[in-house]
Amino acid sequence: MDEMLQPLIDWLHAQPFQQTFAGTFWIVPTAQTIHILCVAIVMTGALVIALRGMGLVGKEWSLARWQARFHGATVAALWVLLATGIVMTIAEPERELLNIIFRAKMLAVIVTLIVAHFLSRSLRAATSDRPIGAGVRLVAVLVLLSWMGIAAAGRWIAYAG
Ligand code: HEM
After folding, report:
1. Atom 4 (ligand 1): residue with closest C-alpha?
2. pLDDT tens digit sequence for 47-75
3. Which of 65, 58, 67, 42 lies closest to 154 in space, CA to CA?
4. Which residue has the CA at smallest separation from atom 33 of ligand 1?
């Protein structure tokens, strides 16, 4: 895998924008700050949906309504996470692309996005005739746990892998 990614790393180092990203002191810290703020947005939506699914908070609104409330902000935050993640990766390609925790995190992001997409569809399709089942509520908890694991992996890239 490392050998496969080395040409991409070499290519990135040859690009002027890579040198700008790596050599401008404020670019990486700013991308990190925005990244972590977007983590908070994704986590807030996932936490409320999971807790509402367990009947612990927000019972005045249906799960479908909570889902609609958080959907736009979560999708926007995920796009910004991708963009800021790409900026950090371009700035330090070896640190990210050759790190096993970074790779595991990317795989987990893809799987969680797919599961979260189907969860979101199930929640939106719910009606009073078709209530949300225990399985869907469990998936909401699993999606929350998965985002938490991904956040932990993001932090661990700096220390392991
Ligand atoms: C969508 C694609 C994503 C990409 C490409 C990406 C990429 C990155 C990169 C390159 C880093 C820097 C790691 C380092 O060098 O120390 C990072 C850090 C981090 N990421 Fe992501 N990430 C993405 C999504 C997410 C998501 C969905 C979450 C959580 C829900 C997340 C949570 C974090 C956290 C908590 C850090 C540590 C920030 C810090 O230490 O300042 N990331 N990410």
Report:
1. 85
2. 999 999 999 999 999 999 999 999 999 99
3. 42
4. 154
